[in-house]
Write a structure and sequence with these properties.
heterodimer, A: mainly beta, five-stranded mixed beta sheet, four-stranded antiparallel beta sheet, about 45% strand, B: mainly beta, seven-stranded mixed beta sheet, about 55% strand
Amino acid sequence: DAKTTQPTSMDCAEGRAANLPCNHSTISGNEYVYWYRQIHSQGPQYIIHGLKNNETNEMASLIITEDRKSSTLILPHATLRDTAVYYCIVRVALYGQNFVFGPGTRLSVLP
Amino acid sequence: DTEVTQTPKHLVMGMTNKKSLKCEQHMGHRAMYWYKQKAKKPPELMFVYSYEKLSINESVPSRFSPECPNSSLLNLHLHALQPEDSALYLCASSQRSPSSVSSGQPQHFGDGTRLSIL
């Protein structure tokens, strides 16, 4: 499995962009990068995923470096409801969709 | 709101009880998963079902018995659990089977069953 490294915690002011980094230097060419978040007492919520190109949806943007060794999840206008643990996951191609969750980043959005 | 429904939301049981956790999805997904999550830890995979057949068992003790009666339902039967089995049990589903190497489809999770063993 390609391993990921994320900061343990981050703070962000409400209304500002939250930029969450993830390092995945051993990623293989056919592995996707997925982002999930987990708000307290809920199940993980899918945010976005990508392979090579940058991606954007209604929740966030995913920026993947050209060498694919790192990525950044961007929440453009963070709200208090975005306070959660954010997981960056690189999917192991051999086992398909068997996600291995790391410790994640605890994002606190402050008023 | 999630598209994967888990019941019950909370369950308290003694070590000699037999109970079942239920998971249901109506998205037409053919892969379903059970994860276990201890407090302040990330989820850990337990079982994977692909087309109603068990494809992966991550060395889970036999006191946990999964069952997939049809493509929409996934059960986890519990018997003789230990206090250390207290955790949040999460169900997920995805559009492609685990054997599909090229799949990029994400998993969709339910909100889990919080299990406490007395």
